[in-house]
Design brief:
The longest helix has 31 residues. It is elongated, with a radius of gyration of 19 Å. It is an all-alpha fold. It has one domain. The mean pLDDT is 92. Helix 1 runs parallel beside helix 4 and helix 6 runs antiparallel to helix 8. It is built from twelve helices and no strands. It is a multi-pass membrane protein. This is Hydrogenase. GO terms for molecular function: oxidoreductase activity. Its main location: membrane.
Length: 286
Amino acid sequence: LDNSGQLDPLLAKIAFIFILIGYGTKVGLAPMHTWKPDAYSKAPAPMGALLAGALLPVAFVIILKFKIITDASVGADFSQQLLIVFGLLSITLAALVMFNARNYKRMLAYSSIENAGIMALGFGFGGIGIFATILHLIYHSITKVILFLTAGNMLLKFSSDKINKVSGTLSIVPLSSALLIIGFLIITGTPPFGIFLTKMQILLAGMQTYPVVSGLALLFMGIIFISFLKHITAMVFGDSEADIKPGEDGLWLLIPPTVFLGIIIYLSFTLPPFLKTLITEATNIY
C-alpha cells in the first residue's frame, strides 16, 4: 500500500478490472452472477447459508482491499464508477427476475445478487454510504443465514423447492413460517429493522452525487419488495396440502435460525461499542 502511488496507472486500472470480475463472480455481481441461482438452489441449506453469509462478504472485502491500492494509484473515481455500474446492473437484474421466480431458493439467490449490488453502490457512492454499507454487509450475512436455514426446513417438510408446491405453511409449520416472514421483512429493508436504515443511508449518499442512479435503485428495490411479498404470501397463507401432516420435522432445526434472528434484532436496535469502533476504523480506511 505504501508503494501503490508508484504503480503504473494503466496497469492499476486493468488489474482492478480483473480483480472486480474475478471476485465479483464470487460475490455474485451481474453479469458474473450466473452460477449463483443454480448453486444456491441445489446446495443443502447450511451450505447456502455459508455461501450467502460467509463467501459473499469475504469476497467483497478482498475487492475493497484492492480498491484501496487502485485508488492510491489512479484516484477513487475509477473504482467507484465501476462499482456503481455493476451495482445498479445487479439490482436491475434481480428486480426483473424475482417477480416470476418459481423456486424459493433461487429467489433467495437473486436477493443476494440484489444486496451485493446495494453494497457495490454504497462503496461506489462513498461518504456516509461507506459506514452504512459495511453495516449492511453484516446485517445481510446474518439475515441470509436465517432465510436459508428456514428454507431448508421448508424443503424437509414439503419435499419441494418450488413456490407453487409449498403452500399454507402457516398452518403446517407455524414456527418456520414466522421465521420466514420476519426474515423477509428484514432482508427487504422493512422498518424498524437495521437494513432499512442502511439502505436509506446508502441511497441518501447516492442522492448527493448520483441522484438518477439512487432513484433507479430505489425503484428496483420497490419492485423486489413487491415480488418477495407476492411469493412469501402465496407460500405462507395459501391453501395447505391435505396430505401433509402439520408440525415441524424437528424443533432443534429451529434453534440456529432463531439464534441468528435474536442477533439481528439486537443489532438492529443496539450497535455494540466495539462493533461501532471496528466499522468506523474500516470506514476511515476506505
